[in-house]
Amino acid sequence: MDTSEPMEQGEPGEREDAGPRPEDEPGSGVVTAFGRQLKLLRVRAGLERPEFGKLTGYAAQSIASFEQGRRIPSPRFIDRADEVLDAGGVLKALKEEVGRAQYPAFFRDMARLEAEAVELCAYDSHVVNGLLQTEEYMRALLAMRRPLLDEETIELRVAARLARQVIFDRWPAPLLSFVLEESVLRKPLGGKSVLRGQLEQLLLIGQKRNVEIQVMPLDREDNAGVDGPFTVLTRKGGEQVTYMEVQGRSNLLTDREEVRLAAARYGIIRSQALTPRESLGFIEKLLGEP
Fold first, then answer.
1. DSSP class of residue 12?
2. Residue ranges of the chain with pLDDT lower than 70?
3. Is the link from the previous residue into 147 a cis peptide, with omega within 30 of 0?
4. Do residues 28 and 21 touch, judged by C-beta distance below 8 A?
5. In this structure, are residues 64 and 71 in contact, taking their beta carbons and an 8 Å threshold?
6. Going by DSSP bridges, is the β-strand pair 240-246/249-253 parallel, antiparallel, or unpaired?
7. CA distance 9 to 14
8. pLDDT in tens, 185-199
9. Bridge partners of residue 215, in order along the sequence
10. Measuring CA to CA, how many Å separate 165 from each of 111, 129, 225, 251, 272?
11. pTM score, two decimals?
């Protein structure tokens, strides 16, 4: 039986690689439910935390953090724990939900839909789309937030945003389309070196066969994107949804007529922007500017 006393949050000795903290308050959400299930299975197996930690490759303090819902376990740990505890897939079944706990609450539904999308079309008029951002660009944006985010929250959100970029490596490959305003590509957010790295990343991603990146030039006299950024997602089977976000709040539209109009609007925006080939040439030109 496990007789060890639970560690208090922030107790010295907790391994840094125990995983990020959930965006929810400790004691709530799927991370806490997972932790309780993990502890029940560990106790049932007759394993103390140090012994279980050795079998999974984690320190006892890290195991305590997972069980108390204070840290988000990695997918690798969940798979290993399920095997060691002979859980029959019970822990693995929670893996995706646990992973989504690293996202801000307002983005979790979108994260789930994004991971299932067969097509994604995004129009951005303020900053580079999160799926296209470099780590340095992410950190610069998050550091600019007001009120200020603490360092731990910044690290958590950077890790979550980077994790979303596995969409580029999925197979079957989803069709991904991005239209960015020229002004987005000229803002030196984080400094000129950060912007340069971001432009270089856009060129690399834009060469992928399933990705089209288009630029909406500043000199366009007609622009159907005047109402602001939005994303249209298509799921397997053809169901579409539209996602919009502003000032840390989000809106997920599922009404067929509203989504149809958003998809039609995106089509017009694409037709008004430079072609993908022209857009990559435009980005190369920007990189050549002093």
1. T
2. 1-28
3. yes
4. no
5. no
6. antiparallel
7. 9
8. 999 999 999 999 999
9. 180
10. 11, 11, 25, 22, 27
11. 0.77
